[in-house]
Amino acid sequence: MPEYRAPRLLVPVLAAVIVLVLLADVLWRHRTHAVTDRPQASASGSRDTAEQVAPGPGKVSGAIARSQPATTDRAAVRERLRFDAAGSYLAQTVEAGDSVIRHWGARGGRPIRVAVVPWAATGYRDEFAGAVQWAVVRWNGVGLPVHLETTRDPSGADVVVTWVDTLSGETAGQARIVWNGSGEIVRATVQLVTHMRDGKAPTSGQMVTMALHELGHVLGLGHSSDPADALHPTSTAIELSARDRRTARLLYDLPTGSVKQ
Which structural domain range is residue 221 located in? Predict the structure, then answer.
């Protein structure tokens, strides 16, 4: 009798164990599914912040949105201008622009096309175009989220550089900038002279100085009060200063638009 009683008890025990194992597996799968499907608030929060910083409605700007997540309101921008602008002339730039930050917006990898056009101006020399290309290289070396690229074809260019005999007064160069309602620069023109105020042709160094200065304006920079800077009104610099570089980087690290209360 004992030989037959043991198998009869073993069957229901095994059946109960199998049921418990299956039940545990179902409960585990349900718990795992619930955790996996839970929405991740941190990811959506980061995305919302990026959209608020984006320069265009409904668009997320790669370089701009990632570089300035903490400057989504004017008060924060004013704080940065107050505490981070030391060693630069960014505050002067913004003040001179009626408290509006202006620079080129995100371009999706497209360069700012600068057409260097040697139009017929008395005294023009090919080395003048070389001076502009040198200035472009210097500004590209600052590390801004925009890149200048020279061309000889003005059609479709974002910036057109030409030469004229002279300009009024003591002006040796001038830049005309066009921006949209949000403060983003959309196009510009630059004129450089082939004759200085004394009637002499500019040297290669003087042309580099003029090109550095006017391209700085094209990028959104205002005048500096330091004679050592390329953006000083009567600059003689043939290289960008540390203040020029710092000012440009700070400018492009802020969103365009008014900083007024």
Answer: 50-258
Residue 130 lies in a domain: yes
The answer to whether residue 42 is domain-embedded is no
CATH classification of the domain holding 97: 3.40.390.10
The domain total for the chain is: 1
Contact 102, 256 (CB under 8 A): yes
Q: 167 near 194, Cβ under 8 Å?
A: no
Residue 64 lies in a domain: yes
Q: Is residue 35, in this structure, part of any structural domain at all?
A: no
pLDDT by residue (tens digit) across 101-145? 999 999 999 999 999 998 778 999 999 999 999 999 999 999 999
Report if pTM > 0.85.
Answer: no
pLDDT at 125: 93
d(CA 152, CA 42): 48
